[in-house]
Automatic annotation (TrEMBL):
Organism phylogeny: Eukaryota, Fungi, Dikarya, Ascomycota, Pezizomycotina
The entry's keywords: FAD, Flavoprotein, Oxidoreductase
Cofactor or coenzyme needed: FAD
Gene3D superfamilies (UniProt xref): Acyl-CoA dehydrogenase/oxidase, N-terminal domain, Butyryl-CoA Dehydrogenase, subunit A, domain 2, Butyryl-CoA Dehydrogenase, subunit A, domain 3
A single GO molecular function term of this UniProt record: flavin adenine dinucleotide binding
UniProt name for this protein: Putative acyl-CoA dehydrogenase
Species for this entry: Aspergillus nomiae NRRL (strain ATCC 15546 / NRRL 13137 / CBS 260.88 / M93)
GO CC, any one term: plasma membrane
């Protein structure tokens, strides 16, 4: 749906068909911004002033879907390591997975600003990082494909990702290179006679690989020792994950949080893929993948914010209800002040996050916005949101006392999951290195 159509829908309150921005079900409470969606019926903590009508509408509509998946659903998925496929299907049903993909391919044609709001609303609903990660790659990993893919690739792949037929994962990280993306060793060897590439190597921490049909894969097409610059020699592919064919093996990784979505080691041993799975030009994959990295920073920042607000809402609720020594524990400044501080940290990170998302979107049409400025804003937002979320989740558990350790109160799950945005897709320390070098112009330390 175009921005014009979205505004028209806002005015008429007519729900569009599947694949559009607003869901089919009517949206309630069209009075003032204060009465719009909150993940808590009692206290909408996040200040909504300054958001666009589209963002608020998205928040409202996504909340209606998330309301069908209560905390008990996510507790069960987490404890049983069960994929939330019905949650993914519910979002795909009304086209939400295409929120930032082109309209001509069935997407909504909106920006990362709107997608960030969607991802924040998902985590804040109680779904946490597991809910967000179940669709995360479908939203951001498809951005390079949408921009650089061939007509055939787009027409065959994007609509099926949007409607939920195919799920996607992102294959970049390797066990022996970590954050050194330019040192990747997974090799794609071209066979001109057969018009194929043969993939050999290993990827790690690949989310949703067990349930994905497609992988956006970054692999080396020219050996590192043969390139002049380390940023050269990498290529991006959109490949089928055909488990019936030889050369592909996946092993699940047992992990601390987000257990509802699988994380994996993926092994390629001369796994053959068609030549036409190459996205863009050969050896230009790193430049292409940069198109999606800043978008991912924004989305992950939004997810962290939602998790932090969810935890803080739980803590404030508990602190009001829990009575010890004849008074609510929230009356004690030892409880109230840490929670108030966590709130202010989240609000500050919120401003940084949506500033970065707006800058990212504006840079697509405004050549005066340098790529450097977008990178600094998106990395800063991810850092600040992750730190604010960690503080909120930790203090939520401590405010609950012993009950913070109990599964039924959810905050222990939030604490386990809030470590993800601090670690991935880039560590806190590497962001500090980036800002030190690019902004403060200090000598490079790595």
């Amino acid at each position: 749906m175009s921005r014009h159509c979205a505004q028209k829908t806002l005015s008429s309150r007519v729900s569009p068909a599947i694949g559009r921005v607003l869901p089919r079900s009517p949206i309630a409470s069209w009075t003032t911004p204060r009465s719009r969606f909150s993940t808590s019926a009692r206290r909408p903590l996040m200040e909504l002033t300054g958001f666009t009508e589209e963002q608020l509408t998205i928040r409202e509509a996504i909340s209606a879907i998330c309301a069908k998946f209560p905390n008990t659903y996510w507790q069960e998925c987490d404890q049983n390591e069960r994929d939330p496929k019905d949650f993914h299907a519910a979002l795909a049903k009304d086209g939400w997975l295409g929120i930032a993909l082109p309209e001509e391919l069935g997407g909504a044609g909106l920006g990362i600003s709107e997608a960030t709001m969607m991802m924040q609303t998902i985590t804040q609903s109680g779904a946490g990082m597991a809910g967000a990660q179940s669709i995360h790659a479908n939203v951001y990993a498809t951005q390079p494909l949408a921009k650089f893919g061939t007509k055939q690739q787009l027409e065959e792949t994007i609509p099926k990702i949007i409607n939920g037929t195919w799920r996607t994962c992102f294959g970049v990280t390797e066990p022996n290179t970590g954050l050194e993306t330019l040192k990747l060793k997974t090799l794609a060897t071209k066979n001109p006679t057969k018009q194929t590439y043969s993939i050999s190597g290993q990827k790690i921490w690949i989310t949703c690989a067990q349930v994905a049909s497609k992988m956006i894969l970054l692999a080396r097409t020219t050996p590192l020792e043969e390139v002049k610059k380390s940023s050269q020699g990498l290529s991006l592919f959109c490949i089928d994950l055909d488990r019936s064919r030889p050369g592909l093996d996946m092993r699940k990784i047992k992990k601390m949080g987000g257990r509802a979505v699988d994380a994996n080691e993926v092994f390629f041993d001369n796994y053959e893929i068609p030549e036409n799975t190459l996205i863009g030009q050969e050896n230009e994959g790193f430049k292409i993948i940069l198109h999606g990295m800043n978008a991912e920073r924004c989305l992950l920042a939004g997810e962290a914010l939602g998790l932090g607000y969810a935890a803080l809402e739980r803590a404030a609720q508990y602190a009001s209800d829990r009575v010890v020594f004849g008074r609510p524990i929230g009356q004690n400044q030892g409880i109230a002040h840490p929670l108030a501080d966590a709130y202010m940290q989240l609000e500050a990170a919120k401003l940084a996050t949506y500033h970065a998302a707006r800058l990212y979107d504006a840079s697509k049409t405004d050549d005066s916005i340098p790529f450097h400025s977008v990178g600094v804003a998106c990395n800063s937002a991810k850092y600040l949101a992750a730190e604010a979320a960690f503080k909120a989740c930790e203090r939520a558990v401590l405010s609950h006392g012993g009950m913070g350790y109990a599964v039924e109160y959810d905050v222990e799950r939030y604490l386990r999951e809030c470590l993800v945005p601090r670690i991935a897709p880039v560590s806190r320390e590497m962001i500090l290195n980036y800002v030190s070098e690019k902004v403060l112009q200090l000598p490079r330390s790595y």
